[in-house]
Amino acid sequence: MRIDDPLWPVVRETSRQLLRSTKIHLEIPTEFQKDVEAILLDISDYQPAKTQFPSFSTSTRNDVCMYERDGEDGSLVLIGYIGMVEPESDVRWIKMPVHDGWKELISACRDLHEAGYPGCIGCGGPNSELPWNENKSRSRLK
Question: Is 1 a member of any domain?
Answer without folding.
Answer: no
